[in-house]
Design brief:
By secondary structure, this protein is of the alpha/beta class. It is globular, with a radius of gyration of 26 Å.
């Protein structure tokens, strides 16, 4: 879809849904509106009264995800369209397998590359460190007897040729913008911000909505040239990810964005307090909007459907480890998620309930350390590691799990407990999380209290009545949590900021 189409199509899509007002077909037949420009202006004008064009920016989008950011970005975007808004979603890279949803228009670098001018291509190229390698081919020394003016002309000509020859070479590379979290991520953030600002000039939008630190530079760059308000949606902070040993580069990006934005949206009161305490953001510049969960993503695999949800006493009937209890951890295996507390608690549980197995789904910088830790504590045969699982794999895991644990050290929100509850799995969660603010049918523990975590696991697994109560009431509670409520709050914030 071309940019001109991107400007008009979402507006027409929403216009078609205006109930019994006037059909687009009859509008097109009016003789007074003879050209598409006039029609577009009329349609846009009418739609501005009923919905907004939101320029949303994210680093992830399903099916390409590494955590909860992509899931949350999509969930909110879908709900916003149901409220009459259109969403332009800027992303570094699409897979081509994304779900097509009316009102959401996914735009990545590759899709818009042909719209960039020669100057814009060159500007993007010099943002990458790869350019430095090529630039070093130009000698900064003149030859003996060469005049300053002739040397300047020679270097200028060489520089121009360099720009022309290698800009396209770099831009056409598949890894120019990957959206990964590799050692090139700082390069990519700068490239992405520059590209986003360029493409935003070709789009018609009312407000900018940037999700997490990787997109804040892009959001502020667009706001600067468009003069449109920008909202920073805070899904996590550098203090959540790194504790007190923050990455100064990331902290500076966040700090600048939080103070420059027209408004910040925190995914929990827990996160809002971090913004106030650690970043000195004024409370009236932060709105709390808890995440939702997409119930349509709950799928019971046929092979588990009849087996995983019937409870006899306390054990689920299943083909996999039918006589054992399966306790599950799903998430990145990093400091923030508290995987080491999960392992230490497991030791005490095994001493009390020897037929318990522990499954850890995810990857991260602590992955091999956790494997060594469990083995060193004599629990190697009790632990199972799946690595990163896609959505279907996570669903299968929920469907064979007896209990879900989220021992996060600092969890801004935490969608996975809600997903587990929707799959009828009782949950034990850290008090140091946003999700603990909105659910009641869960056992809440301090992440550092190994005895409390272990005793809670033992208590649930040894008490069928408690287990059944948590399963049923947790399932009912989670079903009431959706993305429409958060979207309504965000829509209200848009209105407030745009006034």
């Amino acid at each position: 879809m071309y940019i001109n189409d991107l400007i008009l199509t979402p507006v027409i899509n929403k216009y078609v849904n205006i109930v019994n007002w006037i059909s687009l077909s009859s509008l097109l037949n009016f003789k007074i509106y003879k050209n598409i420009i006039t029609i577009k202006k009329l349609v846009i004008g009418e739609m501005r009264k009923m919905g907004k064009n939101v320029l949303m920016i994210s680093w992830e989008y399903p099916p390409r995800i590494t955590g909860g950011l992509g899931v949350a970005s999509k969930g909110l975007a879908v709900a916003l369209t149901k409220l009459g808004n259109s969403v332009f979603m800027l992303l570094p890279k699409l897979t081509g397998k994304e779900e097509e949803i009316p009102g959401i228009h996914l735009i990545d670098f590759k899709k818009t590359r042909h719209l960039l001018s020669e100057d814009e291509i060159q500007e993007l190229a010099v943002k990458t460190s790869k350019f430095k390698y090529y630039a070093e081919q130009i000698s900064t020394y003149g030859q003996f007897g060469e005049t300053p003016s002739s040397f300047f002309l020679k270097v200028s000509s060489a520089w121009h040729d360099l720009l022309k020859n290698i800009s396209h070479k770099l831009i056409l590379k598949e890894d120019f913008l990957t959206g990964n979290y590799s050692n090139r991520v700082y390069d990519e953030i700068n490239i992405f911000a520059t590209w986003a600002a360029m493409i935003s000039k070709k789009l018609d939008f009312d407000i900018i909505h940037a999700h997490d630190w990787m997109t804040y530079k892009a959001g502020l760059a667009i706001a600067k040239i468009s003069k449109k308000p920008v909202i920073c949606h805070v899904h996590s902070t550098e203090f959540d990810r790194s504790g007190d040993k923050v990455n100064q580069y990331v902290f500076d990006i966040e700090n600048n964005a939080f103070h420059s934005a027209n408004m910040n949206i925190a995914v929990s009161e827990f996160t809002k307090n971090i913004l106030i305490r650690r970043y000195s953001v004024q409370p009236d510049k932060i709105k709390t909007v808890h995440n939702g969960v997409d119930f349509t993503q709950v799928i019971e695999e046929p092979s588990y459907k009849q087996k995983s949800k019937k409870i006899t006493g306390i054990s689920k009937k299943r083909k996999i480890a039918p006589k054992d209890k399966i306790v599950t951890f799903v998430g990145r295996i990093t400091f923030q998620k508290g995987p080491d507390y999960f392992v230490r608690a497991a030791k005490k549980v095994i001493e009390e309930i020897p037929n318990t197995r522990f499954v850890m789904a995810g990857t991260g910088d602590m992955y091999y350390r956790i494997i060594d830790m469990a083995a060193g504590m004599g629990m190697g045969s009790y632990f199972h590691y799946t690595g990163f699982l896609k959505n279907e794999g996570v669903i299968k895991l929920y469907n064979i799990s007896d209990l879900y644990i989220m021992p996060s050290v600092s969890e801004p929100f935490g969608i996975t407990p809600l997903e587990a509850m929707l799959h009828k799995v009782p949950v034990i969660i850290s008090k140091q999380s946003g999700v603990s603010e909105i659910i009641q049918n869960a056992i809440k523990v301090d992440f550092w209290d190994i005895n409390q975590i272990a005793n809670s696991i033992i208590y649930v697994l040894k008490n069928p009545k408690i287990y059944k109560k948590m399963l049923e009431e947790g399932y009912t509670e989670a079903q009431k949590i959706n993305w429409i409520t958060p979207a309504e709050k965000v829509n209200s914030i848009y209105g407030e900021v745009l006034r």
